[in-house]
Design goal:
By secondary structure, the chain is of the alpha/beta class. The protein has helices at 12-22, 28-35, 45-52, 56-59, 114-125, 146-153, 158-173, 189-200, 236-239, 242-252, 278-296, and strands spanning 69-77, 84-92, 100-106, 129-133, 178-187, 206-210, 227-234, 256-265. It has 2 domains: 7-53, no CATH class; 58-296, Rossmann fold, CATH 3.40.50. The radius of gyration is 19 Å and the shape is globular.
Amino acid sequence: MPPRATAQDFDQELLILFDAYVHGDVDRRGFLREARRFAKAGVSAAALLAALSPDFAAGQQVRPDDARLKGERAEVPSPAGHGKVGGYLARPAAAGSTRLPAVLVIHENRGLNPHIEDIARRLALDGFMAFAPDALSPLGGYPGDEDKAREAFATLDQAKTREDFLACARWLAARADGNGKSGAVGFCYGGGIVHWLATRLPGLDAAVAFYGNTPAPGEAARVKAPLQVHLAGIDERINAAWPAYEAALAAAGARFEVHRYPGTQHGFNNDTTPRYDASAAQLAWDRTLAFLRRHLA
């Protein structure tokens, strides 16, 4: 089997173009048109897109049928008129009647795909009860195709979607099999939702945001939860707004820590794509687990 591609195998401008495509700023046709200038002999623009896109099987760390955990589908009533918000709940199988610290896992802008479910299972194996909701529930859930998921996601009413995530956080925190402590971890879009939840849930015990958009600086005074932030080194779209929000957090006396990973791309923790950086991801995940244990145990 040939080695998996890494970010270093691609031109930085192509990676920036792909990031714009992933976040809906460029459509598929536009990406393919612009990517032609990076195509080399025998490699088409379509092949470049395929190489940069997620390979969920290659990134899976914990199988869904792993006997060490219990995974199941769960539903949360939507306060936004969406009926039920579906999601994936994972717990360690050996927990028995032990009450567990709870972690809400918030996906990127494609809904609850296999990678985020895998993140929930990883947390379960580390002793947490993890719940990953699917913002695409009112549209039938994650469709199994990243392009279709991204297109569907763009049609959501984000104000209603945020209310759904807020309801999921409260539902998880109130579960009888929890220990009364709850946190949230999110990636990209999910990182932005974690930042938002931290301004809306004074009882949140820990918040971990991976390269997510920040609220307006004026919202920082509402953050009561301990906050851990992970930023990629090469991610101007996210990083440009961080200094103002960081200054506002500091001025408000918020408890926060920020970690930067030089040379990494947006999405460096996602091990299904070439933007994954193994050493940075491991360090960030170790820090995440230590932070969650410290505040939720």
